[in-house]
């Protein structure tokens, strides 16, 4: 996007695509509130789609000696925005060296015979995406305080008002405008055309193609043979 815009301007542009409001028509406070609610619904929907968000970031938290399970989210043991996804692997840092901590699911965790086993280095983690706080269980249980670094997908933050400034990477403004036009049209007794719907889908697909990263294939050295 060439320059930041506001939520109100984005809403006006979206409504203009379907002629839902006149050029000189001013939205009422209730209409503006309803439009913001729809825009925030789109934000939440995009955050749930892995390739729809452009980045992830690392966050580091300290374990507690002898403690296996931690809540994560605003007000949790690890106080941050609750992750929708945590990318594998996490990292356990011990004596200056980083060790991978591999994600496991609930079934795999249930099969661990001694869940209370302790170690200086964490090897596995189970993330349960509960609400309002997620829950992370580490195994083996850390026997001392060590940093755990998580790669967390970014989440789009809800927009508080029409005056809120929005800034995105290239392509996001158009995508949001057309997606918003599709969802707002029924509120004003209109229907988005097939072209608007197609553009909304096409721009989202373009964003996902850009955000799709080719995975790196890793093989255990023991499988490579002498060559």
Features:
227 residues, 5 helices, 2 domains, 11 strands, single chain
Topology:
Layout: E1 5-6, H1 7-17, H2 29-47, E2 56-62, E3 69-72, E4 86-94, E5 97-104, H3 106-110, E6 118-119, E7 124-128, E8 134-139, E9 141-142, E10 147-153, E11 165-166, H4 172-184, H5 194-211
Parallel strand pairs: 5-7, 6-9
Antiparallel strand pairs: 1-11, 2-10, 3-8, 4-5, 4-10, 7-8
Helix pairs in contact: 1-4, 2-4, 4-5
Characterize the overall form. elongated
End-to-end Cα distance, whole Å, is: 49 Å
Helical proportion, percent range: 25-40%
- For the biggest β-sheet, the strand order reads 2-10-4-5-7-8-3
Q: What percent strand?
A: 15-25%
Instruction: List how many beta strands DSSP finds.
Output: 11
| Total DSSP helices | 5
Which secondary-structure class do the elements indicate?
Answer: alpha+beta
- In round numbers, the mean pLDDT is 90
Low-confidence stretches: none
CATH topology of the largest domain: Hypothetical protein yqbg
Which sheet architecture does the biggest sheet show?
Answer: 7 strands, mixed
């Amino acid at each position: 996007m060439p320059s930041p815009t506001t939520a109100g301007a984005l809403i006006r542009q979206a409504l203009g695509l379907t002629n839902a409001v006149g050029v000189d028509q001013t939205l009422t406070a209730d209409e503006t509130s309803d439009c913001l609610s729809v825009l925030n619904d789109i934000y939440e929907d995009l955050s749930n789609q892995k390739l729809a968000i452009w980045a992830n970031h690392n966050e580091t938290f300290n374990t507690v000696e002898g403690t296996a399970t931690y809540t994560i989210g605003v007000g949790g043991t690890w106080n941050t925005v609750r992750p929708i996804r945590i990318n594998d692997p996490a990292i356990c840092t011990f004596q200056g060296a980083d060790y991978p901590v591999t994600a496991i699911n609930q079934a795999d965790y249930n099969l661990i015979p001694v869940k209370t086993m302790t170690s200086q280095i964490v090897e596995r983690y189970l993330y349960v995406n509960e609400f309002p706080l997620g829950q992370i269980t580490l195994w083996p249980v850390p026997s001392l305080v060590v940093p755990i670094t998580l790669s967390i997908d970014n989440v789009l933050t809800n927009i508080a008002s029409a005056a809120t400034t929005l800034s995105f990477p290239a392509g996001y403004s158009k995508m949001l405008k057309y997606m918003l036009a599709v969802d707002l049209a029924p509120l004003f007794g209109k229907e988005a055309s097939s072209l608007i719907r197609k553009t909304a889908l096409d721009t989202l697909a373009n964003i996902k193609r850009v955000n799709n990263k080719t995975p790196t294939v890793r093989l255990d050295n023991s499988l490579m043979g002498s060559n």
